[in-house]
């Protein structure tokens, strides 16, 4: 495996991209879960698919799009979708959760239309749906690296504001935090990560990498920061082991990563249950 990694550029691209995605997706996923917006990743992934399908359709008729990385148009659609979600949350002030299924439905509808106009599925689109190790290019690696640097800067400088808004938005607004601007900034970052992650995990599975590691860490972590640390640890473990397994078994990396995330979640739940049972037994013995 080490020899192959040093020899083949696509493996280098895949592993370096995967390591960054395994870090970024759970990091933002913690804030998403705390905000009770877990399904937002699904919504943005489907609108991203519409962007990818639109690019593949345009590439058949416009020469400019033939040499353009579909990730760029996917990101554009994803960012627009994220901004529309924020606007719809204001429109449906007392039913804010409606914003997510509205954009999700629009994304699915547009995707089906663009795919049908492009004469159905092709290999490129299939790779975007479920992920492909060999499809990751240097261009994709550069995009993910740029997004990773941007997100780290935002998290470092706006951690307190994001933390406050995630747990008590009303109190944060009263305290003078510019919630509107930070909400827009955060949702755009989520959109960018989802669009960048589709090469490795796949559009239909990327939301799993944002939620499953967080769900596992919540069961065993003590405090918010520890939840972030465990989420990143579980995300990296699932990505690295998943990519290695996908390489040797010749299977889709996206599905492998997600299943490993599920296994980690089940292990965390069992470990927490065992620890609670052990604690009860210890208390009974002391009595």
TrEMBL record:
Ranges in a coiled coil: none
Compartments, record wording: Cell membrane; Membrane
Membrane topology: Multi-pass membrane protein
Keywords of this entry: Membrane, Transmembrane, Transmembrane helix, Transport
Alphabetized SUPFAM superfamilies for the sequence: ABC transporter involved in vitamin B12 uptake, BtuC
Pfam families registered for this protein in UniProt: ABC-3
GO CC list: ATP-binding cassette (ABC) transporter complex
One GO process term, biological-process aspect: transmembrane transport
Entry-linked InterPro entries: ABC_BtuC-like, ABC_TroCD
TM region(s), chain numbering: 14-34, 70-86, 98-121, 141-159, 180-197, 228-248, 254-271
Signal sequence segment: none
Similarity-based family: Belongs to the ABC-3 integral membrane protein family.
Protein name per UniProt: Metal ABC transporter permease
């Amino acid at each position: 495996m080490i020899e192959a990694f040093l020899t083949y550029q696509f493996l280098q691209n895949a592993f370096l991209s995967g390591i960054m995605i395994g870090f970024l997706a759970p990091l933002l996923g913690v804030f998403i879960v705390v905000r009770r917006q877990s399904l937002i990743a699904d919504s943005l992934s489907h609108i991203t698919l519409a962007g990818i399908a639109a690019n593949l359709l345009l590439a058949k008729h416009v020469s400019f799009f033939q040499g353009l990385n579909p990730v760029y148009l996917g990101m554009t659609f994803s960012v627009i979708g994220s901004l529309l979600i924020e606007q719809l949350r204001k429109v449906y002030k007392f039913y804010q959760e409606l914003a997510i299924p509205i954009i999700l439905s629009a994304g699915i509808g547009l995707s089906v239309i663009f795919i049908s106009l492009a004469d159905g599925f092709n290999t490129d689109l299939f790779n975007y749906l479920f992920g492909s190790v060999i499809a990751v290019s240097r261009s994709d690696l550069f995009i993910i690296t740029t997004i990773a640097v941007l997100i780290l800067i935002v998290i470092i400088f706006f951690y307190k504001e994001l933390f406050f808004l995630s747990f008590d938005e009303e109190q944060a607004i009263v305290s003078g935090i510019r919630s509107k601007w930070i909400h827009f900034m955060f949702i755009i970052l989520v959109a960018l990560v989802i669009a960048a992650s589709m090469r490795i995990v796949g559009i239909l599975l990327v939301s799993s990498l944002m939620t499953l590691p967080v769900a596992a860490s919540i069961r065993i972590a003590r405090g918010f920061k520890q939840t972030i640390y465990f989420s990143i640890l579980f995300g990296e473990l699932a990505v690295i082991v998943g990519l290695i397994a996908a390489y040797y078994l010749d299977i889709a990396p996206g599905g492998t990563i997600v299943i490993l995330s599920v296994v980690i979640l089940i292990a965390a739940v069992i470990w927490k249950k065992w620890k609670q049972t052990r604690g009860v037994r210890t208390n009974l013995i002391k009595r």
